[in-house]
UniProtKB/TrEMBL annotation, chains A, B, C, D, E, F:
It comes from the Bacteria. It holds the Pfam family AXE1. InterPro entries: AB_hydrolase_fold, AXE1_dom, CE7. PANTHER family: CEPHALOSPORIN-C DEACETYLASE (PTHR40111:SF1). This is Acetylxylan esterase. Residues 2-318 form the Acetyl xylan esterase domain. It comes from Amnibacterium endophyticum.
Length: 327, 327, 327, 327, 327, 327
């Protein structure tokens, strides 16, 4: 069933989540520290059994200079520098197997798929620790370190996402003028963050993006991971205002309001995990003059699935100037 | 939790499902009719946006000559003829998107992924009808036409699977001496069937294969799709013997007992959809002298996931003589 | 809990589902072909152990002349011709046992209970095949052949329902001037269809009728069988418009708008399987000058259960002129 | 899935539940008091709209003389005295609608369907109070008054069941030499009790009988109503021995061991509500020389459904000498 | 997710449940009879192993003089007479263990925790029978004796609650001028009832109080125990008006409208068991000039848990003049 | 239903989990480091509104000297030094409210209830961070840092538990010769660890202790938190051996084998969260000459609830020489 407002109301829906004072300063600071401590990415080519695609195990510098793993893949027969797609993944997963998610490299891109710190144990494997302690928390990472934005998990994770763009740009294989960010669900949230905070991103693809318009979302669904916040607040009743304040620093609506690059958002009217008002609120907040919204009326959180991938490839080809290229 | 016998008993487990009289004659007949009515596959190249992989929309002749759809993919830079992998998919799905399941073609194979007649509406899209009526049936295809083996769905589907090997062999791109069959769950059942019934299959990969040792399986799990048979028998109480007789014609144990090619079976001890005694029973029935069983103690029906893919690629490389090839 | 609009809004609720062009022509055509190919019903009396009710196993000509099974029952001591009730059953069931549903014959009617093609394996047994292939479909019959109205399951099933009235009328036992149609859920949908399309139906009883105002229903419930349509559209994202167009040919609202005979509709405010806006939309669409709506505020899909049966018997007695008859 | 021991072990399964001292004395006493306080049944004919079956609303004297309601139905055209079936119903229901359960009267029997005291609000309506207080209890009646056998609900209910046979025998319509008892689940338990305790019962039909071999049953299923006992004991940890002692007075195994009349028991291997070891234990305990067990391997608690009804009618016809009668 | 109206609408929400004629007369009568038949409470000190708290097993006279059990606890080192808290518990439980709920006596009160008649088998143990029969009912006590207010369970239970205040006042240990009532869920409903009906109650604490604005509540949640009423009405379709009439005698809104003592109500916006419109309707109905509402936006039926206890202790200290006392 | 072996087999059940080399050395080392970095506990008295019990907010030095919070409570009127109970809590909770768990201080003990690092957000609130990063992990703490015993969460948590005994002993209020450890579920596991590793513990109460005989437990239940390990291994298929090796360092069976103090274990035959073979394996492994096992046949993971508390108080009184003391 439909999980949110009627489509006609969604079309004009605007979030009222307040932007916290110091939003830009916080992120500028976090990125500055990370860049200061960054070292050049380390690449190790791996034998995956694939002959048409080359694969490297990557370690680059993320938040506070901490090492983050990734897969870099590129068509075996392509000549660089190539346009690049920096890719973030959904909640609970990691960079997974080097045999998954082959479409982007097969489509001719340098494809950097970032691992997710301290997750990677739910539906796909990860290899990156979250090297930071935590206060009392509900299971999952939604409330890890939620006592302050300085200790909050998503401060680290979104900084990693920005640093992944830096890392991609530093590679010989990559044409630094043609970098896009892409992801679904939590990965879509990261794409919005990197689209707002990283330098010179040329296209942003946020599929059913999580973590947008959070104060509303947590009151209209009981599905996890949004519900982890509710579980925490149900016990820590005295922290409601401070938790919402921390969350306002990572709300996708505020990132979207800073995205001027071409933006593709997808949403689904039967999505109970990410009710569509969040993606619409982000989309409507963006000042981008080249933004598309792809809506799936009868889908849940899978959104458009492979059709979103196809739409993303077409959108990327158009905005990274890679249309018609055949490696 | 573990869903079946302890591992040490599974290692030696043998099914007692009786082989029906006329088993070979039935399949010989069905394949003979299909071959008589077969026409050459029709290939239409499609633009998927991928540059490293070429893709064709295929229509080949299946059961009774009926048209079956498939995707054929191959590395863009490879010179044929190539070793080939014929691939069957799990219950409820279809051939899906041309952007999915890229590993086999990226690994240098001609990869023919067969659509599933009359399914393709659950988790991936299909385009092939099941052009045959049905008697009273429970939802799903497990009991479609179960009144006799002549009308039973899996008689048609497994004949399609065999004809897919014929179709692959007929292609210029394919080296007919180096064809393997591969699939998971229902697709694993089809791989066993084709491994037994098709001509000159050089390797068989059956991942968590469904439809093995059926009489036991339907009494030890309540999970669908096995449970569809129980739902049917719960209403059609007078048909128990005839339904079990029909099912004995399509039991993977009997196919496995005819497989002499190299065989890779995977199984998982926490699989409630396909309890592991079925895959073990099939594995133990096969006279193949080059058979491997890959067991995952803490997995459910996902089995080894990408690790099974990696194992399959290694197994195929070894047995199709494609090790070390780099397109 | 209440599953739909407040009662006061339901009272005036009107569907906006558009009537497709060619609606009447399609059904006229389908019925004409069926009548052309029809043969006289075959009746075989069976010994059920009942002494007060006689029972015949019936085979009559349905869609395209295909044989449809039914039970005919009548009071053992009655002298014909009798008023008749043609009865259709709910989703997943069949004509069931000859020992079930005895109230109508015990009430003095010739009672023809039609089997449902290709179902009859869920909660009651059926014996009638659906002799027609299918395209890709979700489990269940909601999407069987949904590629076009010509191939769609409910085109066949509703034509069977009309032909059942013809078959009843042709029997010596039946007074052809006094035939009613009756059913619940899917059977209620069939009663609306037959009430609109069959000749000279004298009363229509549609209990919690399914398949009314379909475009709304599929967005306000996650319950099956409506949800089968959503499952299909979630995968076949490109077919939304065509699927809704096909469904508009079988929407109970359009049948109801053609029913001028006395009409009894029942509905329940806590019905999550058939949200009450559908039955209300059908009821409100009917131009009948003798229509009753029986509403159950605290019931789910069971509706009024035996109280609906009692209401149906009273309604039938009034409109078939059988009040006070005692066989 | 199978819910209990393998069939071959069930065939010989014997309960070890101990018979409490004073078992016979308790029941003799309870029945003696009830008979002392009994008055003649009151019958009021009701107009149900049925013409082939006559129906009376009955009130007879049950436990301690308390009034118990029932439906009496008989074929309209039959001449009495008729053989009779006294019928008890399942947990949570009542005598229901006079339009339900017509098969027994339509088959030529005087059919007395007893209401269940203090239930009748779950799936069918009842009209009989349980005129007795209760100690602390879990929801449902399984633990109502379980502090002693004198206050326990099933002491009253089973005495009602015995008195229903007395009431039937006292009717002019009934041939007192040809009375059977019949029921399913809780009703099957009552049939066993009445078969053991009532005078001169000529046949006993206990379909998937509940409340047999209780100490085992409550440890092998989490399904209600058996689980109500576990819920009670989980809180009243100090009453385990006394509760099991009370329950041993109403265990169907002890009733069965006293049944010498022809006995039909049905059971289902996938029954999670009444695991089949209970029905088998009862069946195996009975010294009857004319006992049949009808086993449904792929059914749950519905057992054989209408096929059990057909089997019951055939069994009753054989043992009540009513074969071939046609009213 | 939020389970009811938005907070701003709840703030002004008023119930429209009509007050039945004779409301006051009924309760006056029931209490008068109980007082007439009352005897002095019997106290037996028990050894619980606690050294700081003394504990007595109490039996006092409730409805119709029937004996009701309770725990009385008081600080071991306190000198009486003490202010007292009369405490009622939630659905399904009883007075539980003498080791639970120690906060009130540890805070210096004489704490009388009343057992609940005929419950006490769900989450905590009880020892008090409900010495009264029942008509047909759904499992649980919500519909026990619901045929009339004279026989309805909550008529007895709320009279017990009033008599508990009388009992407390009669004790030497208690300062009869300083008695409060307190409870959560069903216990909160009882606190409202006693707050309205008992003499001279000095403070009322109703935490997430159940049984307020019943006609609305039963249509907006499927959670038990409210749903027990729906289950009953789904079967007893003809009793809707009479059942709602009976329930109007025990609706917390009518009790609240009679409470002039200081009143603390708590509610939770995600409470699906007691949707917050009920507690708000009660709160808004009270003419008390010293009323507080404590709202928990992210909690379910646990409400504020220990924070509600802390708030209750502070509220009681303020209104019973016990602030700052240290035993 | 029973969730594990029959009671008679449990009585003699022995775990086969191997003790890892270096078990004692690891724990000796971890405790030595913690002691080296420990500072004296800081106590701050808080006003809880309770008059019979005094309460202090405590911070003591745990693993690696990190600050751990706790509640210390004692009877207001007692003269120290008192015997002490160090208490650990179940999975997901924290030290909770100072108004909960009053029985131990009310019974005359100094009661130190330790907060749980990085949990305290599930069912009770905590205030202690887990000041250590994590590798990839499944939600919850079961796999936090599971890459090695040095980084594993339970290495830290159990060291905290040992240090809590040191902290208690250092208090003036406490008689260091009379200290017991106590907990349920995860808290029971901690009690076993502290009972084995802390100095001079005089009694150990482990109620339904979690984390015993882990390799078996994770294969016989799907309930969390044991299932978190399975979720991790389902993705990290290559780490099975190393994860089981890490877990062998924290298995309660090895702690129990080192407990010679009086030991009380409780278990429940219907416990699906902690199947009873774990508690039995621990109990059977202990060489204590004064050990009791309290078994609840009809309970789940709640075990004996308040009856286990009463049993614990009696056991503590007996073994801490505090019988008959009344403060």
């Amino acid at each position: 069933m439909f999980t949110d407002l009627p489509e006609e109301q969604l079309r004009g829906y605007r979030s009222t989540v307040p932007e916290p004072e110091g939003f830009d300063a916080f992120w500028r600071g976090s990125i500055a520290v990370a860049r200061e401590r960054a070292v050049a990415p380390r690449l190790t080519e791996v034998d995956t059994g694939l002959t048409a695609i080359r694969t490297w195990d990557v370690e680059f510098s993320g938040w506070n200079g901490q090492p983050i793993r990734a897969w870099l893949r590129a068509p075996a027969h392509a000549e660089g520098p190539l346009p690049a797609v920096v890719h973030y993944v959904g909640y609970g997963g990691g960079r997974g197997s080097a045999l998954d998610e082959l479409a982007y490299s097969a489509a001719g891109y340098a494809h950097l798929l970032m691992d997710t710190r301290g997750q990677g144990s739910g539906w796909s494997e990860g290899a990156t620790p979250d090297d930071f302690g935590t206060g009392p928390q509900a299971p999952g990472v939604m409330t890890r370190g939620i006592g302050s934005i300085e200790t909050y998990y998503y401060g680290r994770f979104f900084t990693d996402a920005v640093m992944a763009v830096d890392a991609a740009r530093s590679l010989d294989l990559v044409d630094g003028e043609r970098i896009a960010v892409h992801g679904g669900s939590q990965g879509g949230a990261a794409a919005l963050a990197a689209g707002a905070l990283a330098d010179d991103v040329r296209a942003v693809v946020a599929r059913v993006p999580f973590l947008c318009d959070i104060p509303r979302a947590i009151t209209i669904t009981d599905a996890k991971p949004f519900h982890e916040i509710v579980e925490y607040l149900a016990v820590h009743r005295g922290e409601i205002a401070s938790v919402l304040h921390v969350l306002s620093h990572i709300d996708g609506v505020h990132f979207a309001s800073r995205i001027t690059a071409p933006l593709l958002v997808t949403a689904a009217l039967m999505d109970a995990v990410v009710p569509p008002s969040g993606p619409f609120a982000a989309f409507n907040a963006s000042p981008s003059s080249a933004k598309d919204l792809l809506l799936h009326p009868y889908n849940g959180h899978e959104g458009g699935g492979p059709e979103d991938t196809a739409a993303a490839l077409a959108f990327l080809a158009r905005h990274l100037g890679s249309e018609g290229t055949r490696a």
